[in-house]
# Entry
Amino acid sequence: MANTSSAKKAARQAIKRTAINKTRRTRMRSEVRRVEEAIEAGNKDEAVQALRSAQPVIARSGQLGIVHANAASRKVSRLAKRIKAMA
# Structure
């Protein structure tokens, strides 16, 4: 348990940041899932649209440290590669 006032404040901030990060991580995963579902359904137009909306969300997650920046880039790249293979 935190004893000093600064440690107590840090604990409060950690709780807030955890909630924010959890929301952002969930949103990113939902966007990725939307793209994957469109790919599995074989709907290329829908998959392209889903990737277009997912790409900035994934990139932002990498910038903010929700996931590693390289992991975010890799995720976008692999999704794009799967969509391109549909043709």
The chain has one domain: 5-84. Residues 5-84 form a domain with the Methane Monooxygenase Hydroxylase; Chain G, domain 1 fold (CATH 1.20.58.110).
